[in-house]
């Protein structure tokens, strides 16, 4: 069973699982999105008393908090008990391109040049992670949802704003990869 869970699954099987989950969510009148959990947590902690944005029936979103908790627990289990310790399996061309920017071949899932504690303690590393986190948080709120919410839930509901947001995410990703990433590193 562990072998089945630790190996890569085919794209078509993963697509079927995502489609089935989306069908269940639509059937029960729910929408998927991770960034909405921050709003729910803030509302549950009483932020709705001071800020109108957080004043809503957060208990209706409890299922999404359970989903968030499951993702955290699942990530912990996968990282600590199902991890083979092998580096991320990325193409040789990507490794070559990253080495031109000063990145070593990955020894784990994240590049140590960004996510290692020593990098975080440098001014550049701290600024990259904090500004990047701020931009992702602001962007997901400004766009009315995160990439998973728009790309999976919004597109499955045939929402035009989600299509526009996903196109923007792809354009932003391309600009970041080909313009800003080489400039920063």
What do these coordinates show?
The protein is mainly alpha-helical and 185 residues long. It has a domain at 116-185. Helix content is 66%, strand content 0%. It has helices spanning 2-6, 11-27, 36-44, 62-81, 92-100, 112-115, 117-120, 123-142, 147-156, 160-184. Helix 9 runs antiparallel to helix 10 (160-184). The longest helix has 25 residues, at 160-184. The protein is globular and about 50 Å long. The termini are far apart. 9% of the residues are buried. The model has no long low-confidence stretch (mean pLDDT 85).
Could you give a quick summary of the protein structure above?
The protein is mainly α and 185 residues long. It has a domain at 116-185.
Using brief descriptors, characterize the structure shown:
185 residues; mainly alpha; 66% helix; 0% strand; globular
Write the layout of secondary structure elements.
Layout: H1 2-6, H2 11-27, H3 36-44, H4 62-81, H5 92-100, H6 112-115, H7 117-120, H8 123-142, H9 147-156, H10 160-184
Helix pairs in contact: 3-4, 9-10
The portion of residues forming beta strands comes to under 5%
Provide mean pLDDT, rounded: 85
What string, H for helix and E for strand, traces the elements in order?
Answer: HHHHHHHHHH
Q: Alpha-carbon distance between the termini?
A: 42 Å
Q: Ranges with pLDDT <50 over ≥5 residues?
A: none
Based on DSSP secondary structure assignment, what is the total number of beta strands?
A: 0
Question: Which structural class do the helices and strands define?
Answer: mainly alpha
Q: How much helicity do the residues have?
A: 55-70%
Total helical elements: 10
What summary fits the major beta sheet? none
> What does the radius of gyration come to?
19 Å
The shape is globular
């Amino acid at each position: 069973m562990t072998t089945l869970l630790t190996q890569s699954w085919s794209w078509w099987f993963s697509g079927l699982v995502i489609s089935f989950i989306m069908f269940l969510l639509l059937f029960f009148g729910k929408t998927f999105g991770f960034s909405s959990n921050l709003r729910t947590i803030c509302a549950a902690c009483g932020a709705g008393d001071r800020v109108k944005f957080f004043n809503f029936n957060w208990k209706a979103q409890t299922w999404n908090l359970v989903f968030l908790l499951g993702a955290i627990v699942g990530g912990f289990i996968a990282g600590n008990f199902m991890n083979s310790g092998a580096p991320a399996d990325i193409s040789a061309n990507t490794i070559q391109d990253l080495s031109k920017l000063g990145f070593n071949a990955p020894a784990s899932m994240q590049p140590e040049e960004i996510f290692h504690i020593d990098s975080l303690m440098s001014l550049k590393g701290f600024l990259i992670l904090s500004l990047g986190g701020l931009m992702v948080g602001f962007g997901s709120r400004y766009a009315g949802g995160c990439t998973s919410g728009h790309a999976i839930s919004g597109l499955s509901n045939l929402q035009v704003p989600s299509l526009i947001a996903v196109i923007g995410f792809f354009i932003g990703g391309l600009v970041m990869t080909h313009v800003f990433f080489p400039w920063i590193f």
